[in-house]
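Entry:
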Amino acid sequence: MTATFVRIGGVAHHVVVDGSGPVCVLAAGLGMSWFDWDPVVPLLAPHRTVVRFDRPGHGLSQPSAAPSTAAAEADRIAAVLDAVLDAPAARTGRGGPHHAPVTVVGHSIAGFHAEAFARLHPARTAALVLVDSSVEERPRPSRTAPALARALGATLCAAGVPAALGPAGRALTVRLSSHRRPDPSPPAEVRRVYRTSRVLRGTLDENARYGAVAAELLALRERARLPPGLPVTVLAAPDGSARWERRQRALARRLGARYEAAGPSGHLVMLDRPDAIARAVLDAGR
């Protein structure tokens, strides 16, 4: 395993690389960190070069003043790959540097980012795997949500909430969103990450932009097609919710994707069913 920091847009991003072979990049959901993929990595590393990274204000990455957008997150994935794979500087538009295309995996809100990457960087995309991805058929962007999120973050951080309750909030999230008991993540890393005001602020800020990013992706689908023949997998965790399963199946139909239910599993599929994620990645790359 190689852990490093790379500077993208003036912001230090924490990146971890494991394994060897064709590249896959793992993008985690809202408020999550690189170590949430730990159960998946040993299953992939013998066959793939596995790239994990923390978005700004997540994990160990610095915060950023720039708002999250679908295009910006797609470009962030490309920039992370450029940095860690030591790609040539020569570019040809959005096609990017001349290295082998990658499998991009997006969980939850990062499903928006992964799909945007496949649409905006088609020449760099070998396969797309959406892990219990966010789905919004009629998103509602909010102009006031970002300012409210910043004000709430400032108030909570001034009251010392992250240091006092951050790890406990993380533990509650895992309890409600997975079948794992207790949280299998390294306790020292959980404290290191979730006791910081940076991560609380980053999570609130990204959540406030959720509707806008979803709306941007819907518009992007109208003007930027997925690469012809691209292997796409929708790996869902319905966990007893017929409505959620219908929405995930509808997403698969819209993208021309293979649908698979990863059960039994909560939303944090990487903790409950790392084998299902690894199989989806390896099957897509054949």
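The chain has eleven helices and eight strands.
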